[in-house]
Design brief:
Blueprint (H helix, E strand, L loop, with lengths): L1 H14 L3 E2 L5 E3 H7 L1 H5 L7 E3 L3 E5 L4 H8 L11 E15 L6 E14 L5 H18 L43
Parallel strand pairs: 1-5
Antiparallel strand pairs: 2-4, 3-4, 5-6
Amino acid sequence: MRRVMEEYSRQRHEVSGYDFVYSPHITKSELFEISGHLDWFAESMYPPMELDGGTKYYLKPMNCPFHTLIFKSSQRSYRELPCATSSSVRSIATRSPASCTGSRAYAAMTQDDAHIFCTKEQMGEELTRTLQFVLDLLRDFGLNDFYLELSTRPRARPSAPTRSGTRPKRRSRVSRSPRGSNS
């Protein structure tokens, strides 16, 4: 049943213009440092493993840095925006210590995760399209009674300057046809 649901979701994403992508389950700490995610989410990430003579590696708790790398992997024009990536992947993170035992709880979840790269002018239309897509997909699975919250990106965010004051380098790069193009 899980495979059927995942395949249906993937097909719906692809029909809606998302590129389905894969990313590693483990990566060097540098990727999460550059993105700012390590600075913000280290406490909920699985502890690092030291490999390759002391290099720290983390199990991925989120896809944001990977989708951003894919977006930046090739040059593109603003005319090719919006670009949307999607993955259905297992992410691993820790949770607060259990209240009675003091031990840490580890959670592995499979999530449908997508990132849309667009211009400011496209944000309203993309938000409307994305929310409608999510609502339709939930209803397709028979979920009609649910609660949704929309979180907007705060000024203090992983892609903003880190707490040390440095901003990660940004480049606009990817190669894919625009979502919803008629050509």
